[in-house]
C-alpha cells in the first residue's frame, strides 16, 4: 500500500546523507497521505546503504503500525504529533545536522541575520526548552507536543523548522521533499549565523523591512520568485 | 540568438555549484554582448541539474525580455544596473556563498589581510548599507544602484566585488567566467579573513606597499605574473 | 592464520580515511581473537592505498609478533594494554582526527552537550593527563596503562573513547567495526561541542535526565532503538 | 632533459589541488637535480587541468632559464634561494592553503600543541616578518633570503616549513613529494592549532619532553616508526 508515497519517503531519506545532514542512522524523514490519514516513515536504526523503499513503515495517527516488517524510527511519535496538529504539514524530517545541532546544544534560537534565512523562514528559528523529567517518560510524543504547543501560537508554515534544546533539529513542509529542502536551508542558515557572530559579536538581526521583502518575494499572493504563479 | 553567449553564461552558472558557492538556486550568473547591448541571464528558481543552455533568458538594458520562455532571475535588475553604469563590466555573478555572506550579515567590509586578497582586489571589499524601506519597493534595481553609486567614486575594475548588508555577494569581471573566478576568490578571501581574526583578534591589514606589490604584479603595465603580456 | 579477522581489521583501517578521520598514516585499527588471545593490527607507516589484508600483523598479549613480515603499528603497545585489561574490548582505533585532537591539544574533556553524544557516550569524554618524563621512556605501553587506570574506576563500555593530552584519540568497541563507529561519533561530538561553545560560551552540559534517557534508549535491558532485541 | 625529474615535479604540483591546498593557480612545486645544479618548476599561472609534464621549466641556480617554452612560476626566485643556501633541500612547495595562510595573515608563529605537529616539525612554525619597502623591489628573491636568514640560525631539516607574514606558506623536503607531504602536514597542524585555541584560549604548548619523544620516534638514529631502518 501507499507504494508511491513509500518511494518518495525513501528518496527523501536518501537525500539526507547526500546533503551531509546525516551520519550513520542519525536522521529520519516521513510523509503523510491525508486521504487515508496514514504516514510513512523510515525504519529505526537501519543503515542508509541498506535501505529499500519497501522497508518504509506505514503508521496511523494513533501510532499503530499498519504495514511493515521493521520497527519504525524511534522518533515516530514526534512526527505523529506534528501530523495530528497541523493539516498543512505533509512531510517531516529530523536530523542531528552539525550546525543546527550546535545551536540546539547552545540552547539559542537562530536570529534572522540575512536574506538566505528570510527567504524561507519568517523570523527566528526557535529553540524549544528541555522536557521535564516527568515529560521524558513519554519522550518522543512530548517532544512533538512541545513543538505543537509553540506553533499553536505561531505560524507553522512561515517557520518550517525548530530546534530542540540539547538534541537536534526538526523541519517540515508540504511533503517529504520540501521537509528535506527546509532541513538543508536550516543547516546553511545555522552555519552562516554562527560565522556571522564570530565575525561581528555585536551583530543585530536584519532590518524587519528587508526580512519582509525577501519572505514575501517568495511566499504569498504577491510572490514573484521562480517560474510558477502563486 | 546569442547562442555562444548563452552557452558561456550557462557554463558560468554551472560552475557555481561545482565550486561550492551555491546551494539549490541561490545564485545567478550573466554576461553582456556589448555590440547589441543585450545580456543573457539564468532563469529564476530553476534547479541547476535541470538547467540547459537554451533556458538562458535574453534581456535588454531597459529590462525588457528579448528572448526566452522562462522568467529571468529575480536579481536581473541588479545585474542590469551594473551593465548600464560600467562599460568594462562584461559578466556579473550573485551568490549567497557561505563565508562572503557571513561577512555581509555581519555588516563588515573585508579588510585586506594578505596577498591572496591583494592579488585580485585592491583594498577592502566594501559592505554596502541596507536599503531604506522606500528603496526596498524597487529592491533589485536599487541594490544595483547602490553598488553603482559606490563604485562611481571608486574603481570597479580594481575591486571586482561587493557585499550587500544582510544579503549576499556580487562579483563581476570582463566576462561571465571572470565573474565566477572573482566569486571564488571572494569566498576564499572571506574565509581566510575570518579565520585570521579568530587567530589574532588584533590583526591589522597587510602593509600598503605589500598590497601594491601584489596587485601590480598581476595587473597593469608592469605585470609579470602568468604567460601573457599585459 | 586468523584470515577472517585480518580481513575485518583491514576493512576497519580502510574506513578511517573514508570517514575523513585519518591523513596519511596517522591512525590504526586492531581487533582481538579472544579464543587464541591474539590480536591483529595495522603495520607501521604503510600508506592506506598500498595496504592489503595480508599485511596485517598478528601479535600476542605479551607484545610478541606471531605472524607478519612488517613491523606492527608503533602504537601497538597501547592497543595491547587495553586488550589485557578489559575483556569486553574487542577492537581499538587510534586517530589524530581533527576535532577530537583539537580538544586533546586543548587539554579539555568534552562535556556532554546533547543527545548525539549521550546516545553513545555516557558522560564526558575524558582527557587524560600528559605522561611524566619517566613514563615517556615506555611511551606507548604507558599511554595504554594511563587509559586502563582511568577506566578501572569507570566504565569502559559506557565511555568507549578517551583523549590523550597533546596527542590524539583512542576509541574502542566489541570489534574493530564498532571501534571505527565510535571514532566517527567522537569526531562529530567533538566538532559540535566546540561549535556549541563558540555559539554560547556559557553553555552548560545537557540535563542528566536527558542524558540518561538517550543513553538507555539505546543501551541496556530497556533499550528500544533499532531492530534487534537487547 | 631531466625528464624523470620533470615528471616528479609535475606529479607533485598535481597533488596540491588533490589535497585541497591550492585553488586556481595559487601554488607551485619544484625540485632540484644536485648533480647538474638545475631545478625544475611549474610554469606561471597555468591552470592545473591543462598542465603537462613537458610544460615544466628548467632553471639554473643563477635564475637563467635553461629549458622550457613558458615563463617559470613568479615565485621561482624564492625557490632558488632555498636551493642555493641549503644542500639538504631537494624540493620546495609554495601554497596559499587556507589555515596556514590564516596564521600567516594573523602574523603569528604556530605553537607546537601536540604530537601531530611534533612528529614532523621540531618546535614552532616561524612566521617571518614583512619585507621592507626597499626589499619589496626584489620581492621573490628577498622572500627567499629572509627564509634563508632565519634557518641559517636554525635547522632547515627539523623545521621543514615557514609562514611569510600576510602572504602564505613555504614547505620543503628531500624531494618534491616530501615537500608536498610537509605542506599537507602544515595545513593540518595549522587547522588544529587554531581550533585548539578556540576550545581553550589559554592553552600552552605541548611539554618539551613529549615533543622530543615524538620527533625522535620518527627522526634520527633511534627512530622506530615505520618499516625502514634509519
Automatic annotation (TrEMBL), chains A, B, C, D:
Single GO molecular function: L-ribulose-phosphate 4-epimerase activity
Reactions catalysed according to its record: L-ribulose 5-phosphate = D-xylulose 5-phosphate
Pfam families, alphabetized: Aldolase_II (PF00596)
Enzyme Commission designation: 5.1.3.4
GO CC terms of this entry: cytosol
Pathway(s) it belongs to: Carbohydrate degradation; L-arabinose degradation via L-ribulose; D-xylulose 5-phosphate from L-arabinose (bacterial route): step 3/3
Cofactor: Zn(2+)
This protein's UniProt keywords: Arabinose catabolism, Carbohydrate metabolism, Isomerase, Metal-binding, Zinc
GO biological process: arabinose catabolic process
Domain Class II aldolase/adducin N-terminal: 7-194
InterPro entries membership: Aldolase_class_II_sugar_metab (IPR050197), Aldolase_II/adducin_N (IPR001303), Aldolase_II/adducin_N_sf (IPR036409)
Protein family according to the UniProt entry: Belongs to the aldolase class II family. AraD/FucA subfamily.
Role this protein plays: Involved in the degradation of L-arabinose. Catalyzes the interconversion of L-ribulose 5-phosphate (LRu5P) and D-xylulose 5-phosphate (D-Xu5P) via a retroaldol/aldol mechanism (carbon-carbon bond cleavage analogous to a class II aldolase reaction).
Stated name of the protein: L-ribulose-5-phosphate 4-epimerase
Source organism: Wansuia hejianensis
Organism phylogeny: Bacteria, Bacillati, Bacillota, Clostridia, Lachnospirales
Amino acid at each position: 500500500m501507499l507504494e508511491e508515497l513509500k518511494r518518495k519517503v525513501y528518496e527523501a531519506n536518501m537525500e539526507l546523507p547526500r546533503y551531509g545532514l546525516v551520519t550513520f542512522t542519525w536522521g529520519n524523514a516521513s510523509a503523510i497521505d491525508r486521504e487515508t490519514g496514514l504516514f510513512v516513515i523510515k525504519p529505526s536504526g537501519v543503515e542508509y546503504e541498506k535501505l529499500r523503499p519497501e522497508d518504509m513503515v506505514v503508521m496511523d495517527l494513533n501510532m499503530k503500525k499498519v504495514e511493515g516488517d521493521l520497527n519504525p524510527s524511534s522518533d515516530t511519535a514526534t512526527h505523529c504529533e506534528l501530523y495530528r496538529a497541523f493539516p498543512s504539514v505533509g512531510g517531516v524530517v529530523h536530523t542531528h545536522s552539525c550546525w543546527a545541532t550546535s545551536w540546539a546544544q547552545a540552547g539559542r534560537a537562530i536570529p534572522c541575520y540575512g536574506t538566505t534565512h528570510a527567504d524561507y523562514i519568517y523570523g527566528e528559528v526557535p529553540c524549544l526548552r528541555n522536557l521535564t523529567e516527568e515529560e521524558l517518560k513519554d519522550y518522543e510524543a512530548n517532544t512533538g507536543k512541545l513543538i505543537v504547543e509553540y506553533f499553536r501560537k505561531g505560524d507553522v508554515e512561515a517557520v518550517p523548522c525548530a530546534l530542540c534544546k540539547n538534541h537536534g533539529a526538526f523541519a517540515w513542509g508540504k511533503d517529504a521533499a520540501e521537509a528535506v529542502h527546509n532541513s538543508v536551508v536550516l543547516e546553511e542558515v545555522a552555519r552562516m549565523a554562527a560565522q556571522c557572530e564570530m565575525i561581528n559579536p555585536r551583530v543585530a538581526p536584519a532590518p524587519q523591512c528587508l526580512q519582509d521583502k525577501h519572505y514575501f518575494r517568495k511566499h504569498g499572493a504577491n510572490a514573484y520568485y521562480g517560474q510558477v504563479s502563486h
